[in-house]
Predict the structure.
Amino acid sequence: MRELAFAIFGFLIGLIPPWFSRKRRLRTHWCALRAEILQCKEKSEALLNDNIQSPLYRLPNIAYQTSYPVLLADGAVDEKEVMVLGKFFGQVQDINRGLDNAAHIYMSDTPMGNKLRSEFDRNRLKAEKLSRGDATNPSLFDQSKDILDRKISLRWWQYKKSA
């Protein structure tokens, strides 16, 4: 009987390192996403303030492409969080596509005229929604940052699968 108790105890002790490792891994992914949304906010603010119609920069989305699938697969994200983060990074992709369009218009041999200004205005509207929001809705940045701050501040015993 004593050997069985030691075997069970040893088995349970063996589960502890993976538990801590999972917490550390998930927290690292959440931190990467938070750093990326901060960079996105910074660049969207530059788009709003600098009045450069075809800037060379793009908003980053590498952590979203690498870390977010890991968090989804682990069940660390609930449905509401998926909606908010999906909207944020969908807007990032839209802005990047608009910046690519503006660069294409800028580099074309045809006269730029109102096309470049129109694309710039569209990009500004998207950047406004991303980083500032409006009177009725908080910005996508604020909503996403709230989720990421909450996830990062969780204690190790609070990490559990959402799904």
